Amino acid sequence: MIELWNMLPLVIQILLKIIAIVLPLLGLVAYYTLAERKVIGYMQVRIGPNRVGWRGSLQPIADAVKLMMKEIVLPAKADKTLFLIAPLISLTPALAAWAVFPFDAGLVLADIHAGLLYILALTSLGVYGIIIAGWASNSKYALLGAMRSAAQIVAYEIAMGFALVGVLVAAGSLNLGEIVAAQSGNVFTWFWLPLLPLFGVYVISGVAETNRAPFDVAEGESEIVAGFHVEYSGMAFAVFFLAEYANMILISALTAILFMGGWLSPLPQAWVSGVFLLDDGFHWLLLKTFFFMFLFLWLRATFPRYRYDQIMRLGWKVFIPITIVWILVVAVGVVAKMPPWWSA
Amino acid sequence: MGFEKFLFYCFAAITVAAAVMVITRRNPVHAVLWMVVAFVSSAALWLLLEAEFLGIVLVLVYVGAVMVLFLFVVMMLDIDIATLRAGFIKYLPVGALVATVMLVEIVLIVGPGNFGLDAFPAPPAAGVEVNNTHDLGMMLYTVYVYPFELAAVILLVAIVAAIRLTLRHRIDTKFIDPARQVAVRKGPDRIRIVKMPAVVEAETQE
User: Fold this and answer.
1) Measuring CA to CA, which of A194, A201, A303, A309 is 20 to 30 A from B78?
2) With 80 as the cut, is the pLDDT of residue A302 above it?
3) Do the chains contact at B72 and A131, CB–CB below 8 Å?
């Protein structure tokens, strides 16, 4: 089997690996939408989708078929090229960021030194899809949504970047695999504890970055109809949807890797080494990722939408000062070799 | 080396073509977007030079932040393209002269005589174990720490100056301070609970 794999040309090997990452990811996106409707349904004492398949389990496929059959309406005075490539521009970075993402020790497509920087650079590209969509639609609601989204994403990207600076100071590396390795020990040596304020800032900025409730003023259906994608229909709309959910999964998985020890087991290695399901492994990463994905839905069902000026205040006047102060604290901790995180 | 050369020519061609599009597009939004393409493909060129940190930071800073703000402003402009291009023929000779002088200067300084392969031979390829980010950080914070800090302070001065310019309030505007708004508590800020005796005696339910 291994010989057969090694006989394949490198390009084919990489392509097969990409497919092995992207296909499960898109499947997860499809069922994340179902999970969202079900979870929010139960939180609001409803049942949610329950007609297509067993308890609604085929609902995402029905939705996909419906969206594919629909006509893509082009607004009369839209910039047609930009209008059609905008959804792709928002989806591509959300998928490309997974290239440096480690799924287990050594199980990564591209093990580069500056992995964290690469992810930060790619997630900062996602905003172009939204801005271009808003401008190319030639609609005032879309433009307003794009403006709000651009200001919000630029503001929260700084807080998010500073939170990541804290992680890289604590781990001493930009490589995601090494960041996880730096957290090894038990649940208390993971970075959520020494970086607790940054952890909170990162999770909340992640919600704001993905334009999710309660930070979804870019869509704000009660004020600007549907914001940047008001003119989109059919598959073009579906691709925006895919991008949003792929981004949510990416942020959840990154939070698990950066702050919750990735694939590490919460118990000390001495107790669980070799024990089935308790030992370190991909299933722990999956479990942690699913928790943060659930958190996104939980937040949406719980909080009303923030007002725009309050979003800006939170980003610039609360989060950025917190992160700057805590980076200093972490730096002092690292230099002083504070146990148990930096004693080695 | 063959495939790398192929990639270099691909990205170099994209960079040049995108740069030409930036200065020929009539629509400023299209021009900004072509500039984004030029930045991304020059980042790819830097990656081919094994400068992974610089390549990624180019995308992160210029594409991810600077050009977003550019686009933000350009999208809001209502530019009359006809008046912008009205003086094109009139200014063409002066523009051509300036362009020629600049081109000659650039060729004199960075021409093949000074920057050719004889003067700067291609460095041997560094292995994958060389950590670009780490090496650059060590240089910046040890050997070049004073110039680096000086540049940071100059940028800080620019930020303070720019922010100071926005800090002017008209007295007659009904300015909302969200910080004061969110600090409001139910009591005693918004409601006051007054104790008072019952006026009519409550009827007892039977």
Assistant:
1) A309
2) yes
3) yes
Contact B53, A112 (CB under 8 A): no
Q: Which residues pair with A104 in a beta bridge?
A: A107
Alpha helices in chain A (DSSP H): 2-7, 10-43, 59-69, 80-96, 115-123, 126-136, 140-171, 176-182, 196-209, 221-224, 234-259, 269-272, 282-302, 308-313, 320-335
Locate B15 and state its tokens: 């960079």
Query: Does residue A273 come out as left (phi exceeding 0), alpha (psi in the -120 to 50 range) or beta?
Result: beta
Q: How far is CA B127 from CA A111, B52, B123, B130, B131, in A?
A: 14, 13, 12, 6, 9
What is the rounded distance in angstroms from the CA atom of residue A253 to the CA atom of residue A289? 5
Buried b (16+ CB within 10 A) or exposed e, B27-49: ebbbbbbbbbbbbbbbbbbbbee
A301 has a chain B CB within 8 A of its CB: no
Half-sphere exposure of A23 (CA within 13 A, CB side): 6
Any chain B CB within 8 A of the CB of A128? yes
Tokens standing for A78? 């839209």
**DSSP letter (8 states) at residue A58:** T
- Is A87 in a helix, a strand, or coil? helix
Contact residues, chain B, for A135 at CB < 8 Å: 29, 71, 75
Chain A residues with CB under 8 Å of B179 CB are: 313, 317
| Chain B contact for A131 (CB, 8 A cutoff) | yes
Q: Which of A51-55, A154-158, A250-254 has the highest mean pLDDT?
A: A250-254
Q: What's the gap in Å between the CA of A4 and the closest CA on chain B?
A: 25
pLDDT digits (tens, 9 = 90+) for B136-185: 888 888 999 999 999 999 999 999 999 888 887 777 777 778 888 888 88
ipTM beyond cut 0.85: no
Handedness of CA A107, A109, A115, A117 (dihedral sign): negative
- Given an 8 Å threshold on Cβ–Cβ distance, is A132 in contact with B63? no
How far apart, in whole angstroms, are the C-alpha atoms of residue A157 and residue B63? 13
Strand partners, A272: none
Answer yes or no: are the C-beta atoms of A301 and A40 closer than 8 Å: yes
Mutate to test the interface with A, among B25, B30, B68 (most CBs of A within 10 A): B68
CB contact under 8 A, A309 and B176: yes
By the 8 A CB rule, do A125 and B64 touch? yes
**Residue that is written with structure tokens 């989204």 in the block:** A149
Report the amino acid identity of residue A7. Answer: M
Contact A74, A83 (CB under 8 A): yes
Give me B77's structure tokens: 């402009």
Report whether A83 contacts A240 (CB < 8 A). no
Structure token digits, residue B97: 């002269």
